[in-house]
Structures are given as structure tokens and as C-alpha cells.
Design brief:
eight-stranded mixed beta sheet, Rossmann fold, 44% helix, alpha/beta, 274 residues
């Protein structure tokens, strides 16, 4: 358990193992605890596993300003964590949801730091933007989250009823709702959307030059498969796609054993081809 001072805030991190480093990046509405079902397999395989609570989540600080959650600052958090715990080694990145977006950006902007990247659920941002009407319909909540106060009320209603339905009452739910019920924490989580929606729709995103595996689940209520499949068009290196049937959005917590096996198979394959 480590606390890092990063960009004027404190981030809570955990590092286990002594081998080649793997950094696991969580998304909404998670914390580093979402990887608890994955870590044992990675540690058994001999890797150093790095996780941290991204700003606004878990035990990390949650600054009140919307601007504190701009993607550039969040990406810089990840860069500092990599430099702190990986030193001269390249890191294997794994990201889910918003963590996948952070992983895409780190891989695009700092390829010299990244050995390979596994994008879980969310594809390359250009593929997401071009995913069409069905994706826009699935992403209606992003617009709703812009409504300050109203979105907080909507999410808290009926004991976080919308989040319960979205996640199909998965096992992590009670931890999420407990975390989000703390003062200022729900607003902090929503500020990720408020600080970045316009920029994500307008910004230019370069191609990714590190090897990437994309993992998508057919029961995802928020994302369409096309935005992951078409990410291959923006990866100028090895690309692999894995589809998991009968699984919702939170793949690492819903199917931890299957996901851990996919991850280790991908690592082994990329090492043998290097």
C-alpha cells in the first residue's frame, strides 16, 4: 500500500510481486478493488501487479473542480505511476471502461513506456466516435450526466436503482454504492464525464503503435461491438480481438478467471513473437 503525490493530489496504490510490471486501470464506478479476482493469477505467473485508485475513486483524493478530471491530467497520473513503479521497464497496460481510455492515451502518447495494451470494453476513441446511431443510443446517459445536481439525484434515486439495473446487480455493487455515497464522491465520478465529453467528441486521436488486444462482451449495455472491432483500423501493430458471450460490461469482475486466462495467453503469445 503506497500513497503517491501526483499533480497536487494523493493517489492510493498497491503493488504486489517482483516480476515484469502490469498496470491495471479501472473505470467508472470502480476502484482498484475491481482487479482483486484477476491479481492472483498474474502474481502466480510471476508478474509485478500495479493497481491504483484513479482520482475521484476509492481511497485517492477527489478534488471538487470539474477541470481536475480533464483527461490530460488523468493520463499524467498514469504516467507518473508507471515511472514510479516500473523504472526502466516497459509496462503491460490493461484498462477497463474509462481505464481503457486512459490506457489508449498512454499507449498513443508514450509508446516508449508501454510493452502492450489490453483494452477492455472500450475501443479506440476514433472507433467509438464512428460507431453510429446504436452507440449514441446506448450512450444516452453521458448527456444525462452533464446535468449537475439532476444527474446526482437520478443516480441516487431508489438506492442507486439505475446503476443496479445497468450492472445487473453484480457482486461489486454494494462496494460501489458505498463509495459513491461518501461526500463529494458521486460528483467526482460524474466529473470525469463533465470534464471530457466535448473534448472527446472533437479532439484528434492518433493511431496506436503498440500491440493491442481488444476484449468485448456481448451483454454490454453501454457499448456496441463495432467500436471495439473497428479499433483495429487505428492500431499500427499487432491487433487481437476477443469476444466474450453472456457477460455484461464489467468483464474483470463478472468473468475473472476467463479474463485472466485471456490476458495471460495474450502476454505469452506476444512474448513468443517478440
Amino acid at each position: 500500500m503506497v500513497r503517491l503525490s501526483v499533480n497536487g493530489i494523493s493517489l492510493y496504490a498497491e503493488v504486489q510481486g517482483d516480476g515484469e510490471p502490469i498496470l491495471l486501470l479501472h473505470g467508472f464506478a470502480d476502484s482498484l478493488r475491481m482487479w482483486d479476482g484477476i491479481k492472483p493469477a498474474l502474481l502466480k505467473a510471476g508478474y509485478k501487479v500495479i493497481t491504483y485508485d484513479q482520482r475521484g475513486f476509492g481511497q485517492s483524493d477527489a478534488p471538487p473542480e470539474v477541470a481536475a478530471y480533464e483527461l490530460a491530467k488523468i493520463v499524467e497520473d498514469a504516467k507518473v505511476v508507471i515511472n514510479e513503479f516500473c523504472r526502466t521497464q516497459k509496462v503491460r497496460l490493461v484498462g477497463h471502461d474509462w481505464g481503457a481510455l486512459v490506457g489508449w492515451m498512454v499507449s498513443i502518447q508514450y509508446p516508449e513506456l508501454v510493452h502492450s495494451f489490453v483494452a477492455v470494453s472500450l475501443g479506440h476513441p476514433r472507433a467509438y466516435r464512428k460507431a453510429g446511431l446504436e452507440q449514441r443510443k446506448k450512450g444516452w446517459y453521458i448527456l444525462a450526466f452533464q446535468l449537475r445536481g439532476i444527474a446526482e439525484f437520478m443516480l441516487k434515486a431508489n438506492n442507486f436503482g439505475w446503476l443496479r439495473r445497468l450492472s445487473n446487480n453484480q457482486a461489486e455493487l454494494e462496494r460501489w454504492t458505498g463509495d459513491l455515497s461518501r461526500p463529494g464522491r458521486l460528483t467526482a465520478a460524474l466529473n470525469w464525464y463533465r470534464a471530457n465529453m466535448v473534448a472527446l467528441m472533437r479532439a484528434h486521436f492518433a493511431d496506436c503503435t503498440v500491440p493491442v488486444m481488444g476484449v468485448y462482451s456481448t451483454g454490454d449495455p453501454a457499448l456496441v461491438e463495432a467500436q471495439m472491432i473497428n479499433s483495429k483500423n487505428y492500431v499500427k501493430n499487432t491487433w487481437q480481438y476477443e469476444r466474450i458471450d453472456n457477460c455484461g460490461h464489467w468483464i474483470p469482475t463478472e468473468r475473472p478467471e476467463l479474463f485472466a486466462n485471456l490476458l495471460l495467453d495474450w502476454i505469452n503469445a506476444s512474448e513468443s513473437s517478440a
